[in-house]
C-alpha cells in the first residue's frame, strides 16, 4: 500500500524499527558513493520528511523525530517539513549525539545504514554517545527501503565511452599511475568508490545522476595494474567492454561487498571521505587491513592535461554565446514584467542546447530575483517562483555539462527601468574588485586556496561587510561541477580543500559575492585555470590564473569612481576578449547587444 502522507511514512518506519528491535534510525541525504547529487532511489530523506534541500539529515526514534539542516535551509525546511512530526534542529549548533541522548533510553539501539555514512562519521557519533548507554549499530538493510513501496529503481542507463581525445590520457595510463602509487605506498589494492573517480580512471561516463555524467559503479584497482569494475550488467555495452579491454574485469555491482570479503591478508586503501563504513567493515570482516588514505585518482583528476584544458576553453566559448544571448533576452523581456524565475531558467537551458552539445545542466540553475538573490543557494520551484520585478537585481548562477568540459557561471544584472541605487553599485563594484584581484593573483608554488581567499574579500571588508560562502571550488572535465581537493575559502585548517596546494592545471571558480537579506544579492563568477607565470628574475616557480569564462559583466552596476586604472584596464581587456571569443558565434541583435555591452568603460 502506498503511503501518501509523511505522517503515515513516519509511522511505518517506526513499526519497522520495532520489528527489528531498534529504538531509532538516522536518515541522511546520501548514496553508497557519498555523492553530492544522488539518484531518486536514494532520496530517502525527501520521501520521509518532504525536505528538498541538498544537505541535512533526520533522526527518528519510536517517540520523537528531528531534522537537522544548516543555515542555508532554515527557511526552506520550515516550509517543507511538518513541525508536528519533526523538530527543527540547526547544524552546527545542535548535536545529533546530544539529541539522541535525550530521545533514546539507556540500553536502546539506534541504527545507521553503513553504506550511507563514512567511518569517520560513525566514530564521531560513537564518541558523542559514550556514557549515555545508547548503542549505535549498523542496520542490516535500510529500514526505509523496507517500507518505501514505490521506491524508484536505480537508473538503468548504459555507461558510455569517454574518448581519449577528450580525456587526454588512456585508462591504461591512469591505471598504471595508480599501480605505481600502490607499490610506493605498500598497498595491495585501492577501493575507488567516488563515481567521478571511477569515471575518470576508466574514461567512461553515464547518466545515472542528475547534473553529473557518471554511472553507479565501484572499482577495485590492484597493484599489478589490473582493475575490477563492479557495475550492473545491463549498463555494459559491447563498445564499453571493448574500450575497457582485458585488464579490467567487469563484475556485477551486487558482487562488490562479497569481493571485499575475499581479500584476506591484503592491505587495502580506502578514501576516508568517499569510502563508506560498509566498505571498511566488509574488508575487516574478510580479514583484510583497511587503511584510510585519499583516493590517488582525486589529485590526478584535478590537474587537467592539455586536452582537458582545451576542451574547457571550447565548452566555455559555446556556453558564453548561450549565456550572452540569455542576458540580452533578459534585458529585453524582463523589464516588461513578463519573465519569472522558472521561465528564465528554462530559456537559458534552451539557449545552451542551441549552442553546444549540452548533455545536462551542471547543477540546478539558481534563477533568483529581488530578495531571492540574497539567498546564495536559492533553488526556484513552483511554490517559490516569482516574476522578476522591473527595477531590481536578477542573479543567475548556472552551468552546463558538455563532453568537452563542465561550465559554471554567475552573472548579476540590473533589470530596468530606472537605475540601481548607490548602495547596489557600491557593493557590486566591491565584489568586482575582489573578483579582479583573484583573477590577477600571482603566487608562489606551494600556495593553497585558503591563502588567496582574502584577496577577494578585502574591498568588502573595507565597507564592513562579507559573504558566508567560499570564493572558489574545483571543477571537473565533463564530471562534477564541485570537484576537490582544491578550493578557495576561509579557514585553511578547518575546511576540506582550503589547505590543498594549487598546481598548474587545476580549474577553480572565482565567485565573490554580497547578500543583503530580503533585498538583493550579488555574485560574479568565472572559471579560471591555474597556469605557470614567468616573472623576470623570479626565485622559484610562480603560478597565476587564465580566465576561461567569457560573458559581459553588467556595466550599469559599476561605480567607476571605485575602480583603479589597473582594474578598469582589466575590465576593458576582459570585454575585448569576450568580443573576440563570443562574437563569431552570434548574429543580428544578439551580436549588436554584445558589441554594445563590451565597449570600454573608459569613454
Automatic annotation (TrEMBL):
Keyword Coiled coil: no
Residues forming coiled coils: none
Xref: Gene3D superfamilies: Creatinase/methionine aminopeptidase superfamily, Creatinase/prolidase N-terminal domain
GO molecular function, one term: metalloaminopeptidase activity
Domain Peptidase M24 C-terminal: 541-601
SUPFAM superfamilies, alphabetized: Creatinase/aminopeptidase, Creatinase/prolidase N-terminal domain
Keyword annotations: Aminopeptidase, Hydrolase, Metal-binding, Protease
One Pfam family linked to the record: Creatinase_N
Top-level division of the source organism's lineage: Bacteria
Sequence ranges assigned to domain Peptidase M24 in this UniProt record: 312-529
Every Creatinase N-terminal domain range: 9-141
Protein name: X-Pro aminopeptidase
Organism of origin: Erythrobacter litoralis
Source taxonomy: Bacteria, Pseudomonadati, Pseudomonadota, Alphaproteobacteria, Sphingomonadales
